[in-house]
Structure formats: C-alpha cells, structure tokens
Write a structure and sequence with these properties.
This protein is mainly α. It has ten helices and no strands. Helix 4 runs antiparallel to helix 6, helix 7 runs parallel beside helix 10 and helix 8 runs antiparallel to helix 10. About 5% of the residues are buried.
Length: about 230
C-alpha cells in the first residue's frame, strides 16, 4: 500500500504507522508503547507536511504600513495623491455629490473615462477625511499584532517531511507564548489609555477622541482578541 501511494506526505504517514505496527509487535511493556506512540504522532502530526509557502500578507503588509505612515503621519501620500489627480476647481466636491452608478448613463464613448475619474476623485476625498486617517492608523496599529504571528510562524517553518526542530505548536498555549503576549496587549488596550501610543501621538489623548472613534477602537481590539483566541 505504501509503495502504491503517490502522495509523498501520505506515504510518509503510512510509513510511520507501519513502523509503529512492527514496533508494537516486538514490545511488551505499556509505558514504552505510549512513549513510542507519542514520539511518532509528534513526527507525523506536529510538523509541517510540505514546504512552507510565503503568505501574501507578508508581501502586502510592508507596503500597507508605508502607505499608512505617509497618509497619517506626514501626509506625503495625500499630497502626492492630490497632485497626481490634478484636481480642477470643485471637482472633488462635485464627485462626492454623485453616486458611483450615476455616471454611466447611456452609451457615450467617454462614460468609462468619466467613471474612472469619478472614482479617482472620490478616493482622494475619502483619503483626506480625518476619520479615514484614523481608521487606517487603527488598522495598521492593531494589524501589526496579528502580522507578528505570521512572521513568527514563517520564520520557524520547516521543510517536509517532518522538519528537524521542535514545532512551535507546543509553545502556543504556554503563558509566555507570543500568542498570549498579543492577547494580553489587546486586552490592555481596553484598560489603559496610554497603550494606544502611536494613535495618541497623531490624534491626541484618548479622552479627546471622538466618541465613535473610541467605540470603534475598542470594538476592533475586542474582536481581534476574540479571533486570536
């Protein structure tokens, strides 16, 4: 059966269990059997079964953070976006007054160009809103705590078939694990106004935030902590 199976990962599992079957037949003590079973299960179930592939967020996240910084801290992105849009007069205000589906009326050849221009101006208007800057900064601040998990797991990912190091899965549930650290940081955001450091440096003290901003920040921190758990 092992020789007929073409899936290399499954073949390795079958080989392990075949080895275990042969080993059990040659042993008589219960303690030794449990120990060997534990060892083989660790080899088959707690290591990466295939070569690790880089998650797309590991490529997207640095770009996202750079754009967020240029949008929320020194406004270079907003300046560049407005410059690239080459806004004329009250184009932005007019674009915001017209819904997206209000541009394509009839089949005029330039309707698609009008639609693209309309979306461009509305994107500029959204980016320049104070609420948009807050949500982007909040996303970057909280998202970093999840991305830390991605970087950690991929850093320690091992190649098939079983890997040659102890898997991180054994440390995830420990009180000192990087997962627990992130959860503690998120929960601390709900109790300490000083924990929102980067956002405070941009938008002022937590008590000075708009009520809807404080509610959004707290809800996002709770949701993220719950998802990690």
């Amino acid at each position: 059966m092992v020789t007929e199976c073409k899936n290399p990962c499954f073949r390795s599992f079958l080989t392990i269990f075949k080895q275990f079957e042969v080993w059990v037949a040659s042993k008589v003590n219960k303690e030794g059997g449990v120990e060997e079973a534990d060892k083989l299960l660790e080899e088959s179930g707690f290591h990466v079964g295939g070569d690790p592939a880089e998650n797309k967020w590991l490529s997207i996240w640095p770009v996202n953070q750079s754009v967020g910084t240029m949008m929320c801290f020194h406004y270079v992105f907003l300046f560049a976006l407005r410059y690239a849009c080459q806004v004329q007069g009250t184009e932005v205000e007019e674009a915001m007054a017209i819904p997206d589906d209000g541009i394509l009326v009839g089949a005029a050849p330039d309707n698609w160009h009008k639609m693209e221009r309309h979306r461009e101006l509305r994107a500029l208007a959204w980016a320049e809103l104070e609420r948009s800057k807050f949500t982007v900064a909040l996303y970057s601040f909280l998202g970093e705590k999840c991305m830390r998990h991605h970087y950690k797991l991929f850093k320690h990912a091992q190649q098939s078939p079983y890997g040659n190091q102890r898997s991180l899965i054994f440390d995830i549930c420990s009180p000192s694990s990087f997962i627990q650290q992130s959860i503690d940081e998120l929960i601390n955001l709900l109790h300490s106004s000083d924990a929102w450091g980067p956002l405070i440096s941009i938008f002022g003290p937590l008590d000075a935030w708009r009520p809807e901003w404080k509610l959004l920040a707290a809800d996002c921190a709770r949701a993220l902590a719950g998802n990690i758990l």
